[in-house]
Input
Amino acid sequence: MSDLPSLSVAEIRAGLDSRKFSAVELAQACLAKADKLRSLNCFTELTPEHALKEAAAADALLAGGKSAPLLGVPLGIKDVICTKGVRTTAGSKMLANFIPPYDATVVRRLKTAGAISIGKLNMDEFAMGSSNENSAFGPARNPWNPEYVPGGSSGGSAAAVAARICPLSLGTDTGGSIRQPAAFCGIVGLKPTYGRVSRYGVIAYASSLDQVGGFAHNVRDCALVTQAICGEDPNDATSSPRPVPSFEKALSRGVKGLRIGIPKEYFVAGLSPEVSEATQKAISVLQDLGATTVEISLPHTDAAVSVYYILAPAEASSNLARYDGIRYGHRAEGQLDLKTLYSKSRSEGFGKEVQRRILVGTYVLSAGYFDAFYVKAQRVRSLILKDFTDAFSGSCDVIVAPTTPTPPFRIGEKASDPLQMYLNDIFTIPVNLAGLPGMVVPCGATASGLPIGLQLIGKHWDEESLFATAAAYEQATEWHKRTPSMAG
Amino acid sequence: MLSEDEIQKLATLARLEIDPSFKPVVTSHVNSIIGYVARLNEVDTSGVEALSHVQGATNVLREDIVQPVGSPPDALPLGESAVAPQGMLAGEALLENVPDHSGRFIRVPIIVE
Output
């Protein structure tokens, strides 16, 4: 039998529905592969007991003649998303022993869809990072070359799917944390429109930017997992009541007549020649498929990283104030007075990058600096949103751009200079600030074989055009068929 | 430029105890971040509204209905209750994550001297 964990969701569906293999066999195969590839450090925890129990329930439904797109399909869940009865750490020592008493809405939705979680995926602590090096549980590694980062913060989610441990995973994206690791690992990833997916049960980093999304081997599988998690949730007031269209239907729409905007500010000095070339080639593929292209301007692109590193740390310093060692999370040992208990618990529990962002957030929110930094950043955020709405209202339907300025970098290469690390997110951050959907599909490789990803940016609520564009591109190219040698 | 003392003040406000060996490093990092983000001063924002929520969210109200207490039921495959009201969490379930408690009470240090 072929390697079960490498199968696409369509192949899994066919195999399960025709009883070629069972959901239990499939889950066992994924767990065994995760164990074999333990050196990648993708998972903070594997959950065989839960997985096999859920797989047996799926097999019982299948035996009764039931079927559904994700019934019996294994996946992994980023460890920032609460799973009932399964440790959820957010990559932090602070939550090393936290066992949520409830499921996040996205997890409930996936369980209801019949998907099987095999475990929790490694990540930068509290989703703060672009390399997975900020995890309290050690860095996840890039399956294309374990000396390289898988990207972050959803590094484990991307690495597990790229290594063909499981066909799908969930991540979160606050400033690029789905798209950048999808690009670095050579897989498909989508951050939906802000408000498309419930954040209930997702450990908060920067609430006005955080959004859950999926990783997959191919565009169709990504559409299926996205479909399963979208929709209004009474437990998250920012989730939208808008009806969710069928993403699968959009896949066959093609790109004939589609107007693609190419933002000139994304092709500047500092963009690696290999990334630039791969992006240009992808654009000509889309042109050959019948799309028209137009150069657009997003004049405030250069300000986005500054806006983000004011607003996100500000929101984080507020969100992370809840970790005080009292009700849950790490508590410092010893007979301490209250204030010392707070500060010791927080300093022992939080890693350096988290502490750094809390300090920056505290500074920009403090009296005297609030207007100059926080309110100023909110105003520039308005301008960044306007850049996009102007482009979309006039000249284009979808924007195509590089995902990152460089291909994957080595573990340790940027670890000592936080600002250099932040600048890696220059092309993904504007999308979060504007609340738009963004998608990545593999579009090339460097001379040394490391993946390059193409970024597609859509109008608010228009994930369909992203799926249509990505599916057309995928059909015309072979990049999604490349797999790292260790994936077997 | 923030001095190490000013970083210490921020740390106190944020209830963090910065490791002495990390203090010079974090001071230099925070200064380089603040120096970088201060470039926003060059952007003309006269007459531009501050944006706090991208979809222009408004208050979302619902009927005030008493919900039963109890651990939320597990979602079932191919069930239809993915976002049905899950009920309030029982106190016992929440207490399981409390670092130090006695019965239904969370134990804390003396807060009144």
